[in-house]
């Protein structure tokens, strides 16, 4: 059935349905095992392989480079559908999708020539940028140092989401001149260790744990000194929002299915069956309304990212700066609305089912845990302030940002 026939509204383009039909049997297959994987804590290694084989991980590549040439709104809508099947998989490939975006925006022909063929073959790149502990905001503790004719990489990363499923790991680090650079190394290279030690209570199958780099050999050609693509903060955040929208669809469908099959009902209810009880139907309707609204908001924000990408490709610097700022603003305006809708609905869904809805085999608790976990990334408490500052003072959202211990000589806004 089409997205329209399912009541979720039209996709972002005339060709979306034709595009999505290629992947919906795969989404159905992934969704069939989602609860079992959750209950057994089985990492979706095989499922990531299915995405790779289907060409899903190369969606954004131009057709001339072996991809589908999809727009960002088309990608985001497909991620909502994948998130409906299993939200862990969207987050697990989030870093890879960002790396693809970086390749598409790169001004380095050699970098593009090296990576487009690998990506078109389905090779996956995982992230290793975030660090924990007393690390500075302005520098990484992970470093490369000269060793003979090459370099050696040493350091430790956390939140390396999906890297355990990847072929390559893209690493943010500091060079011997205290400059931020990145290198991409094989996950199986000597000295590389990726651990499945993520112990958060949500998104438990994303392998968002530790990567250790112990004296890893680095060639000069592996070092990338380019900045990240400029709409990266909005891009990464919007993938989280797409994941949330997918969760909204999944929980509304699962609860509706449970209500439809329920035979027991309360004597003080409104009908002999839950499926006929107006108050129960109201709860289910609100779940679906939250899912519909979230998807619509996310797809609207995706259009802003597409404008930023097109400005970057066209090379108009003033337009790039403005469109990137507007993309960040639109995503910031979306974030707390979508988050609040899903945090609320993932809790109130139990009102439609009673105590039996809390039984572990249903795994309905995973929705709240996953929403709460996703909502804790890139803290949402700052977004309303950023939006309000734009509305009142015309202040554009901040550019690329980092987490770590602030230098004692700096104020919170980075000024001296």
Which keywords apply here?
single chain, alpha+beta, 4-stranded mixed sheet, 13 helices, 47% helix, Butyryl-Coa Dehydrogenase, subunit A, domain 1, 416 residues, 3 domains, Butyryl-CoA Dehydrogenase, subunit A, domain 2
Q: What name goes with the CATH superfamily of the largest domain?
A: Butyryl-CoA Dehydrogenase, subunit A, domain 3
Order of helices and strands: HHHHHHHHEEEEEEEEHHHHH
Estimate what percentage of residues fall within beta strands: 5-15%
Low-confidence stretches: 409-416
Radius of gyration: 22 Å
**Biggest pleated-sheet summary:** 4 strands, mixed
CATH architecture of the largest domain: Up-down Bundle
GO biological process, one term: fatty acid beta-oxidation using acyl-CoA dehydrogenase
Keywords: Monooxygenase, Oxidoreductase
Domain Acyl-CoA dehydrogenase C-terminal: 243-377
GO molecular function, one term: oxidoreductase activity, acting on paired donors, with incorporation or reduction of molecular oxygen, reduced flavin or flavoprotein as one donor, and incorporation of one atom of oxygen
